[in-house]
Amino acid sequence: MPRESWSPDADCGIAHALGVVGDWWTLLIVRDVARGYDRFDALATELRISRRVLTERLAHLQERGVVTREPYQQAPVRYRYRLTDRGRALLPVLVTLQDWGDRWVLGDGELTGTADDDEPQAHRVRELIGTRIPDGLRLPASHDGRTEPADLLAGDRPTVVFAYPGTSRPSPMPDGWYDIAGTAGCTLENRLFRDRYPDFVDAGVAVRGLSGQRPDEQRVFAAAEAVPFPLLSDEALTVAAALRLPVFRAADAVRIKRLILVVAPDRTITAARFPITDIPEAVDWSLTEARRFRSSSSGYAEVSADLRRV
To answer: Which domains, from first to last, does the chain contain?
Structure first.
């Protein structure tokens, strides 16, 4: 990439990066394309940005290889926008920036793995209800002793997604981990979902665990604990960015705070729980909410007994 003549330091990666994404609107466009707002009108409505400014910023991002566009309609031709590999590499930056804002601008600077019910993070999770999870969120999924790419959701039935910061097996947690509010209980939560899993199967509901841990760590943990459902690795923070999930940084790693989502087969989030202060009660809540959705959705086919194979 050619060096920018405006740069105060021709060898400074920060300066050059800001030349690409340093504008307010540019970063927000990347954020919302990651969230699934991939058409011009949807971006303009969500961002409340003028069409002229949006056109300019999208052209800039295309020139710099951050987004690409592809036609989805002819006569007239209309386009949808996608993040390139270069654009997706920005997602951890956005999630880290969000964490900094949550902690140091909207919060009091305390390092915590949870939040109060009236904090902006909690509002943001509740606002997910009624929204649709973007397509194409495929993650490494550890299950049955192997790791394979899988969609975040089951697709043919409601899915309960429970996110958690991380388990201490096989890798021990860093010093001071349990001094951070909201970090304890990840193994317990997995075990509770494991033990209640037959009830979820009988209700026709899929279960997915989600954390930012490496796939190999999840695979070892799933085998050791006999976890019967997939554990998905959001190590690249694609889901955290797409849903603006609350996170925190500990031991130089970004961790997803504990929360639960109930998602319909059409990818619409029907219920969300954050913060979680009582893990056993939250597991019961997720089953109740999933059953409530099933009972109110007569249009979905009955689930066969072979769901136990996931």
So the answer is: 13-88 (1.10.10.10), 107-309 (3.40.30.10)
Each residue of 75-107: pLDDT tens digit? 888 999 999 999 999 999 999 999 999 999 999
Contact 114, 258 (CB under 8 A): yes
For 249, other C-beta atoms within 10 Å of its C-beta total 14
Question: What is the DSSP code string of 61-110?
Answer: HHHTTSEEEEEEETTTTEEEEEE-HHHHTTHHHHHHHHHHIIIIISS-S-
Structure tokens that stand for 310 in this block: 């996931």
Report the predicted TM-score, pTM, of the whole model to 2 decimal places. Answer: 0.91
The 10s digit of each residue's pLDDT in 279-304 is: 999 999 999 999 999 888 654 444 33
Contact between 115 and 274 (Cβ < 8 Å): yes
